[in-house]
Amino acid sequence: VGRVPGGLLAGDTATFHRVETPMAMITVFPARRIHTMDPSLPEATAIAVRDGRIVEVGSIESLQPWLGRHEHMVDNRFYDAVLLPGLIDPHMHPGLIALMLACEWITPEAW
Q1: Which GO-annotated molecular functions does the record name (predicted)?
Q2: What is the pLDDT of residue 19?
Q3: For tag attachment on the chain, is the N or C end more exposed, with fewer CB atoms within 10 Å?
Q4: What is the pLDDT of residue 62?
Q5: CB burial readout 28-63, b (16+ within 10 A) else e
Q6: In the chain, which residues have pLDDT < 70?
Q7: What structural domains and CATH numbers belong to the chain?
């Protein structure tokens, strides 16, 4: 018989407790228009965010059943704004683009 760490074969028992960590509050940002880039829901008027991650997109009305179960706050700073997804191009910086556009580009495909 092999040894089991913690003495489990000798009759020791361990009690495990589930630790509930409180979830961060959800912040809902209403906006005049949100371009989602999702063909099934191209535009929305509210976005819910928790810990820097989008958790739901729709309208204030469509979010209500979901928000009713979670602690949340409404932040109206973008109420009259149009929101777009963040687009990141990790290979080009504005200053670099300005320098490179003056160069001749030789690429395998038309650019």
Answers
A1: hydrolase activity, acting on carbon-nitrogen (but not peptide) bonds
A2: 64
A3: N
A4: 96
A5: bbbbeebebeeeeeeebbbbbbbeeeebbbbeeeeb
A6: 1-21, 87-92, 111
A7: 23-100 (2.30.40.10)
